[in-house]
Design the sequence.
């Protein structure tokens, strides 16, 4: 069915929605690319000033923060090892840990602090320094 088969008022409204949705798709695509570019810049900036995963930079004035984060993944075929009679203790010792590429989290400081409670604390657990703060080891 083609929109030309619809009553004029309905056709116009539906086609207006098509046009608006298409424009929004373009805007979202462009905004997502720009956001990714900005995050890449922030990641390089944090690494350039010597921050490591688990550390961040905040602007108290803007109430915004950026945190360098990375994930660890663990994968082992426990069932296969257990079927071979391997003990849980040995399986735990044989678990391989891989780390993902680091990336940044950016947002309002209060939101980041709720997700990362140690944001802004130094490695000794002290108060927030102007740069950094270790989250975990």
Sequence:
């Amino acid at each position: 069915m083609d929109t030309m088969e619809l009553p004029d008022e309905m056709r116009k409204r539906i086609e207006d929605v098509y046009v608006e949705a298409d424009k929004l798709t373009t805007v979202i695509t462009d905004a997502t690319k720009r956001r990714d570019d900005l995050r890449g810049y922030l990641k390089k900036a944090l690494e350039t000033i010597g921050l490591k995963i688990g550390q961040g930079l905040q602007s108290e004035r803007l109430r915004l923060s950026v945190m360098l984060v990375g994930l660890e993944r663990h994968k082992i075929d426990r069932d296969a090892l257990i079927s071979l009679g391997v003990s849980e203790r040995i399986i735990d010792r044989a678990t391989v840990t891989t780390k993902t590429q680091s990336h940044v989290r950016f947002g309002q400081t209060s939101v980041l602090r709720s997700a990362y409670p140690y944001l802004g604390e130094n490695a000794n657990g002290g108060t927030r320094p102007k740069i950094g703060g270790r989250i975990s080891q």
Remarks:
- The radius of gyration is 24 Å.
- Helices lie at 8-48, 78-83, 88-94, 109-115.
- Confidence is low (pLDDT under 50) at residues 121-137.
- The first strand starts at residue 56 and ends at 59.
